[in-house]
Amino acid sequence: MFLDTIANNLTDWGPRLLAGLRLTLMLTVAGFSAAFVLGLAVEYFRSRPYGPVRFIAKLYITIARGVPILVILYLLYFALPGAGIILPSFVAGATGLALVYAAYLAEVFRAGLGAIPPGHREAAVASGLTPIQTFRLILLPQAIKHTISPLLVNLVSLLKDSSICALIAVPELTLASRELMAESFLPLHVFALTAALYFALAWPASVLARYVEERLHAPGERLPAAAANFTSNSARSGVSQA
Fold it and tell me: Could you give all domains of the chain from N- to C-terminal order, each with its CATH number?
């Protein structure tokens, strides 16, 4: 009976839920891409020895992690118009997710950079590389190797948290489900189907995260090309100096 009811309404519900699912994917990609870039920048500035820049980066992480996502979304969508800044709901949703998850990704990058032997950074500086070149060419490729699994985990979390954007009128999957529920008066059936769609997206990504982690940490793993070349060149320099 339960599945029959879903099957009978699938021709009506399906297109609307898929439209919401498409927007959920767009929201997730936009929010995570922006969070990735912003998180890298925050971690770079936090790792600098300059006091004010480092303090601002740490303060940002503390605030972004301490304020609920919904509050930030409300500030962007409902409060900014009072200052003359009006953001479309999709832009406000993607921006809010990016601002929050940038702080979490900065912590992920910090852990990844902390796993790199200090000698790599010291050798890069001794070779004449600038701090930005050291970060981009030597440290970042190795950090990505250590962080790709937690990055995928955070991607899945952002995908699920994107449902909060329904509260600022982003027509994503959850809002489409609420509209169908109000029309059909079948909340259990609608949200069971919605949960299945979220699971169909989140579960493969979680499996991929575990697979990538096992592959990257398997015996005989290789360093990224730039880091490997740098390490071999440093070793040869050490031998020649000896």
Answer: 2-231 (1.10.3720.10)
